[in-house]
Amino acid sequence: MTLFWERGYEATSVQDLVERTGVNRSSLYSVYGDKQGVFLAALDRYRDRVVSRRLCDLERPNSALAEVRAYFERLAEPGPGERMRHGCLMTNSAVEQAPRDALSARRIRAHLERLEAAFGGALGRARARREVRQGTDVKDLARYLTGSAQGLGVMARAGSSMASLSGVVRGILATLEQAAAKDRSASKTRTGGRRKKRA
Q1: Is the pLDDT of residue 82 over 70?
Q2: Domains and CATH numbers, the chain
Q3: 97, 9 in Cβ contact below 8 A?
Q4: What is the pTM of this model?
């Protein structure tokens, strides 16, 4: 998994896999069939180990706006250099493999759908709790956040500085703050109406 994450599919040879894993070529072929089989297994492992860890809080049944913010704030933390330097294996593979490999594309689409669903679920609960404006289209906002997360992965892979990545995250968080801003005029109208009724 790490080897494909570091180098990509094309730049990783079967011999590289043999040397990194310590498993001989015939055994790799016996278990996975070919290099593509090893790669698909690597994508599954990335999904189960890396993606699930990153989405753990966001996918909780009680997650809301705070968990969405925290997801992006963590992406801007210096943290382990490897995480940002190599970007996201799913994003990298979407660019390199998805256009020509239907099996990889299926896994990548499932990843994007999972990410969008995690954002959408948290934002839906946030709207129900009035943490975001009632008129907010949470589906569109979830799609925007999914695209933003993928864009950050591409920038990281391309070697963008942490300052650049942090700037993008600040823009994303500002968008969330706009969605969370209270409609003061509506609030005043409701408050005034209640006062008038009591009078």
Answers
A1: no
A2: 53-182 (1.10.357.10)
A3: yes
A4: 0.85
